[in-house]
Amino acid sequence: MSEGGAPDFGPIPPSFAEDEYRIEGHAKVTGRAQYVADLRPSGTLWAAYRRSDAAHARILRVDTTAARALPGVHAVLTAEDIGGALFGRRLLDQPVLAGERTRFIGERIAAVAADSPEIAAEAAQLIEVEYEELPAVHTTDAALAPEAPILHEEASSYTYIGGERPERSHPNIQGEVHVRREVEALPERFAAAAHVFEHAFATPRHHHGYIEPHACIVWIDEDEIVHVATTNKAPFTLRNQMATALDLPPEKLDIDAGYIGGDFGGKGYSIDEYPCYFLARATGRPVKSVMSYVDELGAANPRHAATIRLRTAVDAGGRFLAHEARVVFDGGAYAAAKPLPPLILAGGVQTMAAYDIPSVSIEVVTVYTNSAPAGHMRAPGEVQAMFAGESHVDLIARELGIDPIELRLRNVAIDGERGGSGDLPREARARELLEIIRDQADWNSPLPSGRGRGMAIGLRHVGGGKTALRVRFDRSGTIHVLTGIPDQGGGAHTVIQRVLASVASVAPHRIHVERGSTAVAPFDPGVGGSRTTHLASQAAARAGVALRAALEEAASRTLGEATERIALVDDWLIGEGGANRVALGQAASVLVGEAGEIGVEGRYEAHAHGPDDPGDYDYGAYVVEVEVDRETGEVRIERATLVADVGTIINPVAHQGQLAGGFAFGLGQAVLEELDVDEGGRVTTLNLGDYKLPTTMDVPPMSTILVPTHVGPGAFGTKMAGELSNTAVAPAIANAIHDAVGVRLHELPLTAERVRTALRELGAG
User: Fold this and answer.
1) In the chain, at which end, N or C, are there fewer CB atoms within 10 A of the end residue's CB?
2) 346, 311, 298, 349: which is closest to 327 by C-alpha?
3) What is the pLDDT of residues 411-441, one digit of tens each?
């Protein structure tokens, strides 16, 4: 057994593949890959929606007469027609169609199915809605005020998947969690501290920026099986959610998630699958819905806006003694997009996760407001918490006159110590990364006026769960792998191919990875949570062990001399002593015999960590160099250096793409991106001209220093990369701006306007 309790799968191979390519890449670049928007079963109708114009209102009347009369319209449904159905990933609190009340601008009130998208859209606009305006709350402070209207008076009636909904301290709270360690000593440690620092930070809503918008097609066959083609990255989980919401047996739902055009956390939440089900039921035909970017930006599931208040006690030597945090997320009108049991973002507790702090009290709260329901986005909660925490640490360092890296070195948790979030890393690598980046990123070299360097460190837990693969070897020598893992661009199928080939000792080109719907594929929890490489590689390795054993047993039985054992080595079947040697493909028909194939399974379930069990983490540290124009406030990112804690790398090109892509992702949210919401609760950045995503012209030269380890939970010690490199970008840039011109921005994005305003205030002071 290897460290962490996983089986040894032999030596780590020098290369996992003959060539550096993605196994689905050819289909994508040639246009053969079919996305949901490309599909159109025979008889397909198109869906469109009449959306709310009011942030909070009682719906008095919905007049669908004109819409129903429009030629080409086959169905118009309101909440009255579908029985007030609710849906959600954990808490079913969001109406499929709003009935008595609407709680945010853009909420679906009526659904139309028509012959074309143009007719459907026209019909939706013909639907008249009469409202009685109700008091709305657009900030978390307003929602938690004593006189605030309760947005969900009927909350006790909502279905909660997986037990009972946790208690809440206020009716407008979606969920809350508290992390406490040695809290009884907090007052004493704050009182005895040489310094106490307190700062507040704010982050806005962000959109994920995937190329393909949400889309689905729903149809019902003659056996009453509901077929759903979806962009949802967790089809088995969606099946469970739809079964609960629609009161259907799970076996009556067949969910198929094919190629998904980007995710970044946003494709775990499904919206239109539910009204399309009712439209398909009403019309007897397939119904298709494809969201526009106006819909996406205005009414999908953005990253939560947040306000974060931090307070830290520090001794005379710069050691952290105690830490208090209150992290408040704007969850929007519904909690439906949240999958975790407490209905919060787990990353919210990571304000000081890298540091060993004796006394900690962290409160994380998600609040109902009259805005679009917020959901998960790459490193959910951590982007907000770490922007605050790493800015806070830098402010402490500069106030104390201690080099920012040195202050971190004095405080980071080492092996055997818990981080500030209470978690115990199996291998704490923050100190190692800080020392490397100090030495290799020119940290102490002088800079001209107007230029500055900033650094930040982040970490991310490697997710767990369970998955399975079915593998069969056929007469042609082809190895077919059936998986329920969708392809959302992360390269999971290539991971499966390479690990299986390595462990089974077969040629990678022999392996064909096939994704199946929930009706045929084994269970998988879906892509997300930084778990996919961990789970997929372990399942593939176990399948590889079983397949190699089965092929060697068949070869020994059919090809061997008497008791001779035949081994499978590098796609060759080799007898004892090496005398007999035959290519695996040539022997395939003999090996499988009359059965026609040899089948095995690879199943894996990660160890469930208890509170005292060490978990697996990846660490990443940045040094970013900026130049600031004092006249305009413009910030130019000149260079960036990432030192990344990595396990065994299965696909080097894809791995580096994840790290570089994560930096670009974090860069956009640091300096460009903001879903702006006006005082009435309406999103005003409804196109990609107003909502600025970074392009290649915005990305500076970037150096990546990999610090490998074999202590990872996946096969051969693999870890993860997808959510490692975006969390620390914003605080590193904020810290660099401070270093360059002496102004501190406490709110994202770090725009030229905000820098210029802060410089003027600094000059006036």
Assistant:
1) C
2) 349
3) 999 999 999 999 999 999 999 999 999 999 9
In the predicted structure, residue 765 carries a pLDDT above the cut 80: no
**Three-state DSSP class for residue 638:** strand
C-alpha span between 481 and 501 (Å, rounded): 11
* Run of H or E including 240: helix 235-246
Between CA 529 and CA 533, with CA 531 as vertex, the angle to 5 degrees is: 140
Residue 316 falls in which region: left (phi positive, over 0), alpha (psi -120 to 50) or beta: alpha
Which segments within 484-533 are labelled E, that is strand? 511-515
Residue 17 has pLDDT above 80, yes or no: no
CA R_g for the chain: 27
| Tally of CB atoms within 10 A around 696 | 6
Number of neighbouring beta carbons within 10 Å of residue 641: 23
Single out the residue of 527, 456, 530 nearest to residue 493, CA to CA.
Answer: 527
pLDDT of residue 235: 98
**Phi-psi bin for 355: left (phi > 0), alpha (psi -120 to 50), beta?**
beta
The answer to whether the CB of 27 falls within 8 A of the CB of 35 is no
What are 34-51's pLDDT values in tens digits?
999 999 999 999 999 999
DSSP-assigned beta bridge partners for residue 313? 196, 322
- Tell me what pLDDT residue 6 has: 47
Name every residue whose Cβ is closer than 8 Å to that of residue 562 and which is 6 or more positions away in sequence.
none
In 3D, which of 339, 345, 427, 425 has the Cα closest to residue 386?
345
In order of 88, 280, 420, 471, the CA distances from 213 in angstroms are 19, 21, 37, 33
> Which pLDDT tens digit goes with each residue over 217-260?
999 999 999 999 999 999 999 999 999 999 999 999 999 998 99
Enumerate the β-bridge partners of residue 177: 364
The whole-number pLDDT of residue 28 equals 93
Give me the residues paired with residue 479 across strands. Answer: 473, 511
Its pTM surpasses 0.90: yes
- Answer yes or no: are the C-beta atoms of 638 and 702 closer than 8 Å: no
Cβ contacts of residue 211 below 8 Å, gap of 6+?
261, 262
pLDDT at 20 over 80: no
Looking at residue 140, what DSSP letter applies? H
Which domains are delineated in the chain? Answer: 25-33+464-605 (3.30.365.10), 36-136+208-299 (3.90.1170.50), 305-463+611-764 (3.30.365.10)
pLDDT at 674: 97
Residue closest to 410 by CA, chosen among 422, 423, 396 = 396
Q: Determine the 3-state secondary structure of 15 from DSSP.
A: coil
